[in-house]
Write a structure and sequence with these properties.
It is found in: Cell membrane; Endosome membrane. GTPase-activating protein for the ADP ribosylation factor family. Its main location: membrane. The protein is an alpha+beta fold. The protein folds into 4 domains: 237 residues, Up-down Bundle (Substrate Binding Domain Of Dnak, Chain:A, Domain 2); 118 residues, Roll (PH-domain like), CATH 2.30.29.30; 120 residues, Orthogonal Bundle (Annexin V, domain 1), CATH 1.10.220.150; 265 residues, Ankyrin repeat-containing domain (Serine Threonine Protein Phosphatase 5, Tetratricopeptide repeat). It contains 23 helices and 12 strands. The strands form 3 sheets. The protein has a 7-stranded antiparallel sheet. It has a 3-stranded antiparallel sheet with strand order 10-9-11. The chain is elongated, with a radius of gyration of 50 Å.
């Protein structure tokens, strides 16, 4: 009994030892798996690090020592990565794979033998219990129980021997498998470190030589540092003895620089936003352009695309010192230098670049202009592309075919490709630059090939021309014995153009009446009495139509009333037809007889401009402006109506555009509180409404009756004008809500206004049709 008890205890001890062994092996395999995964991640990171060393070596290609050293080190480290990879592979085979096989196969066999042993042990216990329970008088049952017990014991002995054998096998194999796997793992490490040692043993002499070079480099660097400190101290001593501004004179410019940069340096630039902030930027004059960069590697931002088209001048009307302004065709740029000498240097550099560009690149620029061709179509084409503004050769051809426009208006150079849109003349590239220097209140210059042309601007150019304007501005040139400058004489050109357009020395001022406005109006009425246009009727019906009262014009004027109102109404009685609501173009058949009025030259310039605006006579309007007429003159006898309002009443889109380009106030009201937009809305002039909205008309302004243009258009059921006004109002609200002040608006808004502009200038009959369709409803 004691022996059986000892065997049972030993068996339980072995079973417990095997269970603990299984736990230890499972834990070791999991740790090995984690180590292998971490090692692979380390290899990946190490490989990326080595790639970074290679990149640094390529970047240091100019330094042979650095490039060679980094390349050699990266190759050695890559070898170590390969050795690490081999080590992790061998670890996976020796530890993970071998121990997992031992656990899954040998320990599983032990567990199966244990289950069979426990099952047979239970069956033997049941046979013993059954054999003990049999009664002695039941011989048959006694024999059966005895036989079962004997068979069960035999089976138990057999299974027990197998179980003991499996235990012994496991105990023996456990030792070999564990030691075998660990020995393989250690040999893998031995090989890894041996390979690493061999690798770095070969690299050792090179590293030793490199260390010696580094020692020399450190000594050289220390010596260079001392030299630099000494130079720095010397410079500080010199700077203490000299004024800082004297060093500014070292900044030089070279128009023949090999890299194309004439001059460069830091300047302060005033932003064009509402805050007018100043920012320091790196400016340079290069390739006939003025550009700046926020940072050294940023792409340059072009301030002036062509220096030939700009002017530069001092600015003393700003709070900051040393400021100067560069004015280009489309914008002006306010700049500030660090000192007065730097400002002078920059101004001189810009001026020299302009002169050089004219001298050396003038012919090239003309050739480029001739080669430029449009892609958006001409005025006569039926192209329905999204860009409907006139550009390129179409504008050039239409404008140059006007009499006198084939040569420059001021110097006579053939094939001019620039124009002054408020004067209606063509200019060569050199004269256009001089016109820009006069200021936009004298001349607004635009390219006939490079800029976009709105249809109303193009028609304005076609209404005037060089011959017409020269008859006004050069009327006395022969009497005074003045000769026009020749191409290439820039100084002579500047003096001549200034005398012609700013001082107006060549205008025949004797042709303008010296009569004051009141005397001019009397002369106008007296002339009409002689022509039989004034009758003694108690009242005359105004032929303007039913909208006359809305415009502040009494349709019935008594014969004893004085002033221009009576004369104008009596003259209108002779008209055979009413001005069309949408007559935005001027066919010859619809022009009124000029005999209705006296010659405008007998009038005061303001009154001349006033009447010529109604009569759609742009040459007479240009002459009145040349004689000093105020473009915003208000007629006190016609409800303080302005020339722009008269142009609306006359129904001419081009006349309105001419006045606007020459400084007419688009929001100036008459005595009734109605501005040009009100009058155009009342008369149903859709094209004029579109033009005024594009030129900044205030559609929220109300007349003395509290009506704004939108309410007038809604009451008149003019669908086109309502659409334009509402679209402009929505666009304005959108820009205000999004903070897009000064921006044109979204593409839909721009497209619709382009469509109306094209239609009003080129196909006004379509607007007439729309107007008729809207009136049907």
């Amino acid at each position: 009994m004691r022996r059986v008890s000892d065997e049972r205890a030993a068996l339980e001890e072995v079973e417990g030892d095997v269970a603990e062994l299984e736990l230890k092996l499972d834990k070791l395999v999991k740790l090995c798996i984690a180590m292998i995964d971490t090692g692979k991640a380390f290899c990946v990171a190490n490989k990326q690090f080595v790639n970074g060393i290679r990149d640094l070596a390529q970047y240091s290609s100019r330094d042979a020592v650095v490039e060679t050293s980094l390349t050699k080190f990266s190759e050695s480290l890559q070898e170590m990565i390969n050795f690490h990879t081999i080590l992790f592979d061998q670890t996976q085979r020796s530890i993970k794979a071998q121990l997992q096989t031992f656990v899954k196969e040998d320990l599983r066999k032990f567990k199966d033998a244990k289950k069979q042993f426990e099952k047979v042990s239970e069956e033997k216990e049941n046979a013993l219990v059954k054999n003990a329970q049999v009664q002695r008088n039941k011989q048959h049952e006694v024999e059966e129980a005895t036989n079962i017990l004997t068979a069960t014991r035999k089976c138990f002995r057999h299974i027990a021997l197998d179980y003991v054998l499996q235990i012994n096998v496991l105990q023996s194999k456990r030792r070999s498998e564990i030691l075998k796997s660990m020995l393989s793992f250690m040999y893998a490490h031995l090989a890894f470190f041996h390979q690493g040692y061999d690798l770095f043993s070969e690299l050792g002499p090179y590293m030793k030589d490199l260390g010696a070079q580094l020692d020399r480099l450190v000594v050289d660097a220390a010596k260079e540092k001392r030299d630099m400190e000494q130079k720095h101290s010397t410079i500080q001593q010199k700077a203490a003895l000299q004024d800082f501004s004297t060093d500014d004179t070292k900044l030089e410019y070279n128009v023949d620089a090999a890299n194309g940069i004439v001059m460069e340096g830091y300047l302060f630039k005033r932003a064009s936003n509402a805050f007018k902030t100043w920012n320091r930027r790196w400016f340079s004059i290069q390739n006939n352009q003025l550009v700046y960069q926020k940072k050294f590697k940023d792409n340059p931002t072009v301030v002036v695309e062509d220096l030939r088209l700009c002017t530069v001048k001092h600015c003393e009307d700003v709070e900051r010192r040393f400021c100067f302004e560069v004015v280009s065709p489309t914008k002006s740029c306010m700049l500030q230098a660090d000192s007065e000498k730097l400002r002078q240097a920059w101004i001189k550099a810009v001026q020299t670049s302009i002169a050089t560009a004219y001298r050396e690149k003038g012919d090239e620029a003309e050739k480029l202009d001739k080669k430029s061709s449009p892609s958006t179509g001409s005025l006569e084409s039926g192209n329905e592309s999204k860009e409907k503004l006139l550009k390129g050769e179409s504008a050039l051809q239409r404008v140059q075919c006007i009499p006198g426009n084939a040569s420059c208006c001021d110097c006579g150079l053939p094939d001019p490709r620039w124009a002054s849109i408020n004067l209606g003349i063509t200019l060569c590239i050199e004269c256009s630059g001089i016109h820009r220097s006069l200021g936009v209140h004298f001349s607004k210059v635009r390219s006939l090939t490079l800029d976009s042309w709105e249809p109303e601007l193009l028609k304005l150019m076609c209404e005037l021309g060089n011959d017409v304007m020269n008859r006004v501005y050069e009327a006395k040139i022969e009497k005074m014995g003045v000769k026009k400058p020749q191409p290439g004489q820039r100084q002579e050109k500047e003096a001549y153009i200034k005398a012609k357009y700013v001082e107006r020395k060549f205008v025949d001022k004797d042709s303008a009446s010296s009569l004051p406005p009141e005397e001019g109006k009397k002369a106008l009425c007296h002339g009409r009495e002689e022509k039989g246009l004034i009758t003694s009727k108690p009242g005359l019906e105004d032929q303007v139509g039913t909208s006359g009262k809305s415009l502040g014009v009494d349709p019935f004027v008594k014969s004893n009333d004085s002033g221009i109102q009576q004369c104008a109404d009596e003259a209108r009685e002779g008209l055979s037809s009413v001005v069309s609501a949408n007559s935005l173009y001027e066919p010859e058949g619809e022009r009124r007889d000029s005999s209705v009025f006296l010659e405008f030259k007998h009038l005061h310039p303001g009154l001349q401009l006033y009447r010529a605006s109604y009569e759609k006579k742009l040459p007479d309007m240009a002459e009145a402006l040349a004689h000093g007429a105020d473009v915003n003159w208000a007629n006190p006898d016609e409800n303080r109506s302005t020339p722009l309002i008269q142009a609306v009443l006359g129904g001419s889109l081009v006349t309105c555009e001419f006045l606007l380009q020459n400084g007419a106030n688009v929001n100036q009201k008459d005595a009734k509180g109605q501005g040009p937009l009100h009058h155009a809305t009342v008369l149903g002039h859709t094209g004029q409404v579109c033009l005024f909205l594009k030129r900044g008309a205030n559609q929220h302004a109300s007349d003395e009756e509290g009506n704004d243009p939108l309410s007038i258009a809604v009451e008149a059921a003019n669908a086109d004008i309502v659409t334009l006004l509402r679209l402009a109002r929505m666009n304005e609200e959108m820009r205000e809500s999004e903070g897009l002040y000064g921006q044109p608006g979204d593409e839909t808004y721009q497209d619709i206004f382009r469509d109306f502009s094209q239609m009003a200038s080129n196909n006004p009959e379509k607007l007439n049709r729309f107007q008729q369709d809207s009136q049907k409803f």
